[in-house]
Design goal:
Strand content of chain B: 15-25%
CATH architecture of the largest domain in chain B: 3-Layer(aba) Sandwich
Largest sheet of chain B: 6 strands, mixed
Number of domains of chain A: 1
Shape of chain B: globular
Distance between the termini of chain B: 51 Å
Helix content of chain B: 25-40%
Order of helices and strands of chain B: EEEHEEHEHHHEHEHEEHEE
CATH architecture of chain A: Orthogonal Bundle
CATH class of chain A: Mainly Alpha
Number of strands of chain A: 0
Structural class of chain A: mainly alpha
CATH superfamily of the largest domain in chain B: P-loop containing nucleotide triphosphate hydrolases
Distance between the termini of chain A: 17 Å
CATH superfamily of chain A: ABC transporter involved in vitamin B12 uptake, BtuC
Oligomer: heterodimer
């Protein structure tokens, strides 16, 4: 496609916004570290309080980095879903993909110990949680895809996604009922969502997963653009439907599944960010949208995490609650303002 | 066989339909370069099914379809995209595309892995914009267009795909008489000036008789095919509809409602 406009200025703007929200995110937290000290530390200076240095390098910077990965990745998976289903209301949460990841995580955290008698979770590595959650989201995505091929009605598809959510929460309830208090607590904390508390190894693994998801998305750009015309048109333009669909599904499964595994189910970022992005980048061209949506999602996540930290207080709110509080009104506002979210 | 006499598409003993139900059988026709061909017939006779079969959106049940001396099913998907483009009755999924963006999507079979447009691609897009009088609308979003304008955009996209064969499913439905005539006239120009073979289905028999080089009548029996005046002489249009409602007037080439 031809981009009729150049989006260089918008990209510059959004990049500056990302830098600012990143700084804001790093400079705020339960321990009050003055902003100028944070800045001087980041630019190679030394600060007198050693614990501050430790907090920033070992806690806040990895957390900010995770926020960028989580926000960007989830937003991108939302964009992929919206294009694949050609539905403005699609997103990892709405279609039940996050529920699938939850189910995978729940089965691992609560189910295995229940059935095999393992009580300790230490034997379960970081990777196994990621794999379980990714498999869960893949499976739901595949089922949704199969249903989508039979049922052309997009409304029905969304309702099926919601039903998956119900089924998942039902199974999770049953598991929770039989689960030990310790495992249950672990699952509950996971379901609150958090971008902190990740070990360096976990951050590395998450980076690799998100990188792979982004790479597959970039490789799908051409077919994603063709999908904007509808499947038949895409096919007539030489797009192999089966191959391109599979690639997008794997990308989404990796992004939504992997991120949900490490950061818990985080709602609304995937649904809302592509729409917010289109307010600035008024285009459907995926060459523009993919980087823009990723950056925008990262910004939103950094800001939500900053809020969740409740600056200068020791408490941390569940990030999932914050993104819902921010995201849901945004979606309602978009619906009311535009009547119909134009896809 | 000279280049101009080369058959772009030839169909023999074709039967179309679905696994459970045969819709129409024994369809025979072949088209050369630069021919505008209309497919007419009553509702449910299989016009759209035929078009979908020719566009390889659904498998044929029997017979052969040769596209440029090669069986339709033997073309690879990317190869087919350079031989055959379509305009379907379904609306584009995203109406947030601009006119120019949508037309440029027609260049996908020729672009690189990320879809960047070369100078040649841009020229093709510009030619299509010019041919369908869309220059002023190039930056408009598709949801802002009227039905007639959107149809022109979709046909311009097919033109930008630069294929010898273009298939259109009911390109004139939902349009008023003026715009029906405009669209068909533009198709005729595209066929004759750019040497494209264009096949479309239509209910506008009157207009098709006036503008088409060839017409295929699907009547569920022998499916006559030929030049409009020959078909009129052979009284094929008279048998198209049950005679209790409309009668074909051979002199004017139009249908009249029974008084």
């Amino acid at each position: 496609m031809v981009s009729t406009k150049s989006y260089r200025f918008s990209f510059l703007l959004i990049f500056i916004a990302l830098m600012l929200s990143w700084l804001l995110n790093i400079s705020s937290g339960s321990v009050n570290i003055p902003f100028d000290k944070t800045l001087s530390l980041l630019f190679g200076g030394q600060i007198e309080v050693e614990s501050w240095q430790y907090i920033i390098w070992n806690f806040r910077i990895p957390k900010a980095f995770t926020s960028v990965l989580v926000g960007g990745g989830l937003a991108l998976s939302g964009l992929l879903m919206q294009t694949l289903f050609r539905n403005p209301l699609a997103g990892p949460f709405v279609l039940g993909i996050s529920s699938g990841a939850s189910l995978g995580a729940a089965l691992l955290l609560m189910g295995i110990s229940l059935f095999s008698g393992f009580t300790s979770l230490t034997i379960l590595g970081d990777a196994s949680l990621a794999i379980a959650a990714s498999i869960g989201s893949f499976l739901v995505l595949l089922v949704v895809m199969l249903v989508a091929q039979r049922i052309k009605d997009t409304m029905a598809l969304l309702i099926i996604g919601l039903m998956f959510g119900s089924i998942t929460s039902a199974i999770v309830s049953v598991l929770a009922y039989f689960s030990s208090a310790e495992n249950l607590q672990r699952f509950i904390f996971w379901s609150f969502g958090s971008v902190g508390n990740l070990s360096n190894q976990q951050v590395l693994l998450l980076s690799a997963i998100v990188f792979l998801g982004v790479l597959l998305s970039i490789l799908s750009i051409k077919s994603l653009n063709a999908y904007l015309l509808g499947e038949h048109y895409a096919q007539s333009l030489g797009v192999s439907l089966r191959k391109s669909r599979l690639m997008v599904i794997i990308a989404t499964g990796l992004l939504a599944g992997g991120i949900t595994a490490f950061a818990g189910p985080i709602a609304f970022v995937g649904l809302a960010v592509p729409h917010l992005t289109r307010q600035i980048f008024d285009t459907m061209e995926h060459r523009i949208l993919i980087p823009a949506v990723f950056l925008y999602g990262a910004i939103l996540m950094l800001l939500c995490d900053t809020l969740a930290q409740l600056p200068n207080s020791a408490s941390v709110l569940p990030i999932n609650a914050i993104t819902s509080l921010v995201g849901a009104p945004v979606v309602i506002w978009l619906l009311v303002r535009k009547r119909k979210m134009i896809f | 066989m000279t280049e101009s006499k080369e058959h772009i598409i030839s169909v023999e003993k074709l039967s179309i339909g679905y696994k459970s139900k045969v819709v129409t059988t024994s369809i025979d026709f072949s088209l050369e370069r630069g021919i505008l061909c209309g497919i007419v017939g009553i509702n449910g006779i299989g016009k759209s099914t035929l078009l979908r079969t020719l566009g390889r959106f659904q498998p044929k049940l029997g017979g052969t379809i040769m596209l440029k001396q090669k069986k339709l099913e033997d073309h690879s998907q990317p190869q087919l995209a350079k031989e055959l483009s379509v305009v379907l009755t379904e609306q584009p999924a995203s109406k947030n595309l601009t006119v120019q963006e949508l037309i440029a999507l027609g260049r996908q079979p020729y672009t690189n892995w990320i879809g960047g447009l070369s100078q040649k691609d841009k020229e093709h897009v510009q030619h299509s914009l010019d041919a369908f009088l869309l220059n002023d609308l190039r930056s408009s979003k598709c949801h802002e267009l009227s039905d007639g304008q959107l149809q022109r955009v979709l046909i311009a996209r097919a033109m930008a795909q630069d294929t010898p064969l273009i298939l259109l499913d009911e390109p004139t439905t939902h349009l008023d008489l003026y715009h029906k005539a405009q669209i068909l006239k533009m198709l005729q120009q595209l066929a004759h000036q750019n040497q494209k073979t264009i096949v479309f289905t239509s209910h506008e028999i009157d207009l098709a008789i006036q503008l088409c080089d060839k017409i295929l009548i699907l009547d569920g029996m022998d499916n006559p095919f030929g030049e409009p005046c020959d078909l009129i002489e052979q009284r094929h249009f008279e048998r198209l509809f049950p005679s209790d409602m409309v009668q074909f007037d051979t002199k004017t080439g139009t249908f009249k409602v029974n008084k």
